[in-house]
Structure formats: C-alpha cells, structure tokens
Design goal:
It is built from nine helices and five strands. It has about 220 residues and is of the alpha+beta class. The termini are far apart.
Length: about 220
C-alpha cells in the first residue's frame, strides 16, 4: 500500500539513464534513500538539494530501496534559487546533512526544523551571509548536544569572542553579528569540527570552499 509523505532532498545519485537514487529526509522515515524513475513527470530539476517534495512511497519487504512516485514540488524556493549566495549556502546545508546523518537514522523534530530553516533562508531579503553558521549551531542542538561557550572553547581559538552572538537564542542576533568572509570560513570550520567530534563522523564538506571563495570576492 502506498503512503503519502513529504521529504527534503539531500542529494541524488544517477544509477541508470532513467533512474535516480534520491537521498532524503522525511518525518516518517528519517534519513532514507529512495529509487525514482525520472522522465517528463519527474524531471531532474525536481531533485535539487533542499527541494521540499511530496511523494507516494511503495514499501517493499524484499528490498531496502523503495520506490517513490507521484512526486510534486511543495515549495518553489524562488528566493533561494535566484540568489547565488543563498544557493551556495543551501548546497552547504544539504551536504552537511547528507554527510552527518546516517542512513536509517531518525531524530525527533529534525525534519520540521530543516523545513523551517530552508523556508527562512528562502524568504530572507538581507543579512543572511552567516546563515550557514547559525544552521550549524541549531543542527547541533537538534541532534542533542547544544553547544555552550564552555563546550565550544576547546575548538574555537581566537574566534571564541564571536560565539556569544552566534549562540544567542535569538537568530537575528547571530545573523546581524559583523563578520568578514575569512572569519565566517574559520567559524564554519570550527563548528564542523565540533559537529564531527560529537557525531564521530569526519565531515569533509567540499562546498565550504565554494562559500569561502564566494565571500572572499
């Protein structure tokens, strides 16, 4: 029997001319990969990282790779896709989630928080250059190890002075904290190291270099 779900695309892998494995996050199944047939009704553009989709899942007791069909885009994310800076931040966010979350893992509240984060970035008109830093701080909290100044100090070095603002309960305080491109890059690396330590997963995030180059221009 088919089940209707909403999912967030983390990444996709083409396996045949007309098939994809879509790595996704959903409330019902957590981090899970699905098999998708691409074509006129399901074009490749549907599966951009962080797209929010609705689909029908067909469970299969004989295979761990289930099929999804009836796929629809739930949010246009036009504000995100039309801005190169936001788009690069979204690629960073999706890669962190893809590499940090284990296949089959389910964290309470993770899907809803991810969806809110995506829609917030999409709708921000300005002051989003540090959004990926706040995203990493909040991800740690959702995964169960909310960072404090004391916790982050062994990782932070001379950047520790910036963390009271980044850890502030109000997101606006973090986003408005003045940082240059080099500082953002250093802080992102610190937070990735902190996240790697607590998840016991080395995180080699290639899109961090793209953000570093973009904000150094």
């Amino acid at each position: 029997m088919k089940e209707s779900i909403e999912l967030i695309v983390l990444a996709s892998t083409k396996i045949q001319e007309s098939s994809l494995v879509v790595h996704s996050l959903s409330e019902e199944w957590g981090r899970r990969s699905f098999l998708v047939r691409i074509g006129r009704s399901s074009p490749m553009s549907l599966f951009q990282p962080l797209n929010i989709l609705s689909a029908e899942v067909t469970p299969n007791s004989k295979s761990e790779l289930w099929r999804i069909s009836g796929i629809r885009l739930e949010e246009s994310l036009s504000g995100l896709r039309s801005n190169i800076h936001k788009n690069c931040i979204s690629l960073f966010m999706s890669e962190v989630l893809f590499r940090c979350l284990k296949e089959g893992s389910r964290e309470e509240g993770l899907f809803d928080w991810c969806k809110r984060s995506i829609l917030t970035l999409d709708r921000l008109d300005s002051d989003f250059a540090s959004f990926h830093l706040r995203f990493l701080v909040e991800l740690c909290s959702v995964l169960g190890f909310r960072p404090s100044l004391e916790d982050i100090a062994p990782f932070a070095g001379e950047c520790l002075k910036d963390f009271p603002a980044l850890l502030n309960p109000q997101q606006s305080v973090a986003l408005l904290h003045p940082l240059n491109g080099g500082q953002r890059s250093s802080i992102a690396a610190i937070l990735l190291e902190y996240l790697s330590y607590h998840t016991d997963s080395p995180l080699n995030i290639r899109s961090l270099k793209v953000l570093r180059d973009l904000y150094s221009e």
